[in-house]
Amino acid sequence: MHKTSAWPLAGAYGVLVVYASLYPFSDWRNQQIPPWDFLFAGWPKYWTGFDLAANVVGYVPLGFLLALSFMRRGNVRYFENHPNLAALAVAVLAGTLLSFCMEALQNFLPSRVASNVDFGLNVAGTLLGAVVATGLEVGGAIDHWSRFRERWFIPEARGALVLLALWPFALLFPAAVPLGLGQVMERMETAIAGWLEETPFLEWLPMREVELQPLVPAAELLCVALGAFIPALLGYTILRSVPKRALFAVAAVALGTAVTALSAALSWGPTHAWAWLSLPVRLGLLFGLLLSLLMLAVPRRGCAAMLLMALVVHLAVLNQAPASAYFADTLQAWEQGRFIRFHGVAQWLGWLWPYAVLVYVLLRVSRPERTPTIPG
């Protein structure tokens, strides 16, 4: 039996909601008012249509994933004659409790304003998502997905599917190198130096003798190629056959290209959506696809071993490059208005995604293979 991917995705999306609701997590203070006082406040003086829509749309995926999780897990034992209705009710209740906690905690943040309107719109979004999930379940669409998943993926595919679903979101925040996820070394060194400042331990920190230099075109090509190769290999560890692998590899490169263009358009405007597509990047994408096609017939454990090697090389080369020269301008653009709730999550996904894949693959190869290792 396949384990549902909706539950870990719901958890990941819940973390995103918490981050977006409580960012920037600083200057907490107690206003000496009850946390639930916002429920009895009047209509807010300042609001925009985008804010209203964002509060609804932001909770729709949460309601959808929660309802789907309860339906797929089969652990909602109330209303045995109406299990889908029970899943819908539990999902809405969970989303309501999360939204209430977020609005209550916003009372302690000077940069956020708790609002009963936001709370009501969050609940409406959760309900809408849960209703959509219930409708798809009743209409048989979820069963179609289950049959599709059974044809395409091995039973132990949940972890990889969750990571692959998060990959496009990790690409949204611009990186120094296209498809270059996991560039954390320079920021870690700066952060650690800041923590150790005015302490004797600062002298223990190894200091670079020279500043990091931008990658030469060949190194940039390699990073782009491995950035496209890694998700393809991750898919190969769970796909059932060679033809499905080939389709997935092409789709992964196309999706990575499209999301990177979207990221550039969001950051610097639609006219610059393809400015990042230089000659080394184009060759890197082509080389990454070629590497993926060469690995089509390799057994799953062989793909997992190659994935580990690709991750290590990718992270080693990428972390020799400095942060993007446009990082400060990009950060300012993403922190203004509409992006303030999402830029931090996208950054963290971009930083941590390769390391999560590394841990996942190490755990996978440490367990015995339960299914045939050579795709048909």
Automatic annotation (TrEMBL):
One matching Pfam family is VanZ
Alphabetical UniProt keywords: Membrane, Transmembrane, Transmembrane helix
Q: Could you list the residue ranges forming a coiled coil in this record?
A: none
Chain segments annotated as transmembrane:
7-26, 46-71, 83-100, 120-139, 160-181, 215-239, 246-268, 274-298, 305-325, 345-363
The keyword Hydrolase is annotated on this UniProt entry:
no
* Annotated VanZ-like domain residues: 20-133
Top-level lineage group: Bacteria
The record ties this protein, via InterPro entries, to: VanZ-like
Q: What is this protein called?
A: VanZ family protein
